[in-house]
Amino acid sequence: MVLPADDAPSYSGRRRARGAAGYVHSMDRLGSLARRYAPEILSVILAVESAVEVTLRRHAPHQPYPGWFAAPAIALVIVPLLGRRRFPFCAPAAVWLLAAAVSFVDGQLVVTPVSVFLAGMIASHLLGNLSDGRQARFGLAIVLCGAVIVVDNQPGHTGGEFIFIPVLFAVAWGAGLALRERAGHAEAAERRATRAEDGREAAARAAAAEERARIARELHDTIAHAVSVMVLQAGAVRHKLPEAHQEHKNALRDVEQAGRTALTDMRALLDAMREDGEGVELAPQPGLDRLSRLLEEIRRAGLPVRLRIAGDRFPLPGGVDISAYRIVQEGLTNALRHANATEAVVSLQYAPDQLSIEVRDNGQGAAPGNGHGHGLIGIRERVRLYDGEMTTSTPAGGGFLLMTCLPLTRHLR
Q1: pLDDT in tens, 332-381
Q2: Per-domain residue ranges of the chain
Q3: pTM of the entire predicted model
Q4: Contact 337/373 with Cβ under 8 angstroms?
Q5: 25: pLDDT confidence band, cut at 50, 70 and 90?
Q6: What is the C-alpha separation between 220 and 262, in angstroms, rounded?
Q7: Three-state SS for 314?
Q8: What number does CATH give the domain 288-411?
Q9: 394: which strand partners?
Q10: Start-to-end C-alpha separation, the chain
Q11: Which residues contact 180 (CB under 8 A, 6 or more apart)?
Q12: Calpha distance 331→307 (Å, rounded)
């Protein structure tokens, strides 16, 4: 297929972009593998370097060790580091045990290559970095004893080397121990953060369940009242019907019985949802008709509140009325207790198909741990019950803004 001239640059550009992306991905993967296996790669390099070094020095004067023994022996001292992942204690410990053993055969061989010294430092660091404290301490003893043996078998050693050399490797062990403790603190902090997050999630679930139960108890009165009215009206109509309409009277009797059964079932369900020791609420459930009393209570508690109403007020469905009151109540309670606010504004906007509620304060906003969490969970459950919307924000001038919208269409049909 021949591409138009105008599309050729874009096609080649896309191909170059894919090639560059593939190259970057390959390099990232290579870098990740290199970081993961860096000690193993370094161990191989040290083993090869030490074998080459002692091989090149085998013809030097005053080198007592034979070439056939030197290269494999010195490489054997370093090779155990390759097994550090599978044998985190035995592999670095073997480095020092083999170094001490080879020093009995030839005391100069172990101390000649610099790579053996580096391997000893790595082994000491790995032993100090062990998660098992007992193994780490035993590893320190192996390092110190191995260092003393190597120094003692070295021709021409001085007295100060018996102190300086073991201390040097002990410092490497201590560095490993410090990193292990730092990693342990980080893991402990991560576990605490995970437990705290799990605790917050559990508390949020408990708060949501508690709010659902509270909503159910509040709606019980509204629903029970409506069903009771229907039962009474059905009974009144049934008694007024003449005997000639026996079929209609039987249907109305079934309606009455179904209504009474529903009321009984609702009461049983409410009793089951009520926690042990929780008394029955005898006071009527509040609605927006009691909003002025709520605002006065908040003012007496120390928070000035202003009320703004837009639109023509009209009676709301019972459940919506209760939820609207509770939303305002929870928003003002948060502003009073947790936001350190000095003023709050409640706005109600009536529309034919919805009721909008805003609670704004000039406090510190929704800072972590200021108490907004569980209150907002309860409000969210109420809004979700009526397929409404809820948003929270921090206005430009500061404070906290809670906005909810409760649809009325399905309740007014």
Answers
A1: 888 887 777 888 999 999 998 899 999 998 887 654 444 455 678 878 88
A2: 1-29, 30-194, 211-273, 288-411
A3: 0.47
A4: no
A5: low
A6: 11
A7: coil
A8: 3.30.565.10
A9: none
A10: 62
A11: 128, 129, 130, 131, 136
A12: 13
